[in-house]
Design brief:
Blueprint lengths: L2 H6 L3 E5 L1 H4 L5 E9 L2 E5 L13 E3 L1 E6 L2 H15 L1
Antiparallel strand pairs: 1-2, 2-3, 3-4, 4-5
Length: 83
C-alpha cells in the first residue's frame, strides 16, 4: 500500500518531531479512526522499505493489512455502521 493509497482512503498524517520522540529524527505515520477507540494506523515512515509499501494495522500490530482493497472494504463497513 502506498502513501497515495492511504491519503485516498482518508488517513491523516501524524508527524512526530524528534523533540517529542527524542530518537534523533522526525518521522510520521498515518491513522484513521473508524469508530471511537477503533483506529487503523500505518507503519512508521522510518520502517517503510525501499519499495515504498506501507502496512496498515488495526488496534494490534499482529493484525496487518497489506491489501488496499481490504482496507477500503473495512473502512466502508464502518462508515455504514456510523451512518
Amino acid at each position: 500500500m502506498t502513501e497515495k493509497d492511504l491519503l485516498a482512503l482518508g488517513f491523516k498524517k501524524e508527524i512526530i518531531p524528534d523533540s517529542e520522540s527524542q530518537n534523533g529524527y522526525d518521522y510520521y505515520y498515518y491513522n484513521l479512526e473508524l469508530i471511537q477507540d477503533l483506529v487503523l494506523y500505518s507503519s512508521e515512515s522510518d520502517e517503510v522499505g525501499a519499495d515504498g509499501e506501507w502496512t496498515v494495522f488495526m488496534s494490534d500490530p499482529d493484525c496487518e493489512i497489506l491489501d488496499p482493497k481490504i482496507v477500503k472494504e473495512l473502512i466502508d463497513v464502518f462508515r455504514k455502521i456510523k451512518g
